[in-house]
Amino acid sequence: MLENLVLSSVNREFAKLKKLGDQAIGRLTVDELNRIPADGSNSVALIIKHLRGNMVSRWTDFLVSDGEKPDRDRDAEFEGGYGTKEEALAAWEEGWRVLFGALATLTPGDLLRTVTIRGEPHSVIDAIHRQLAHYAYHVGQIVLLAKWMKGTKWESLSIPKGQSEEHNREMWNKHVKNNGKGQN
């Protein structure tokens, strides 16, 4: 059923984003998490605060209340930081826990329902994709900031430069071996 494929796919993609963020954040110290690269920019800590605030607001009572909760203070998400890495990680995990908890309750029949964000109606599919794109944007920022801070000590989270051909060969071999066939 197409709806089951959609739910499975978005769960996988959110999980991939979380893992990417986990890996980048895991490489940073609390000082690096709170470092603001330039005036008017955000630190990794502020991005975490914003993602947590957005996730809790959007995914709490996802099907029955507006995605912008009245008690959310979005502007405060871009102030301060975290005193410890553990505080930052707890906020990061809380946001994802709320998101995955809400996704776990969705049924195929829910995908065409309508939800609102700031009063604007969205199909559940559209609302999910809106958040997937939003979180990808911010996780990309986290990775870029972490890479910038680590400089030459950074170890790639994906295919390292100069290793694309080797990676492609390994993937082709893995999938041809597992599937018993190549691309037609």
Radius of gyration: 19 Å
**Given the C-alpha coordinates, what overall shape results?**
flat
Instruction: Please outline the major beta sheet.
Output: 2 strands, antiparallel
Structural class: mainly alpha
- Unreliable parts: none
**Strand tally:** 2
> Helical content, roughly?
55-70%
Tell me what portion of residues adopts beta-strand conformation. Answer: under 5%
| Helix-strand topology string | HHHHEEHH
Strand order of the largest sheet: 1-2
| Distance between the amino and carboxyl termini | 26 Å
Number of helical segments with 4 or more residues: 6
Mean of pLDDT: 94
Structure description:
This protein has 184 residues and is mainly α. It has helices at residues 2-26, 30-34, 44-59, 85-105, 124-150, 164-179; strands at 114-117, 120-123. It has a two-stranded antiparallel sheet with strand order 1-2. Helix 1 runs antiparallel to helix 4 (85-105). The longest helix is centred in the last third of the chain and has 27 residues, at 124-150. The radius of gyration is 19 Å and the shape is flat.
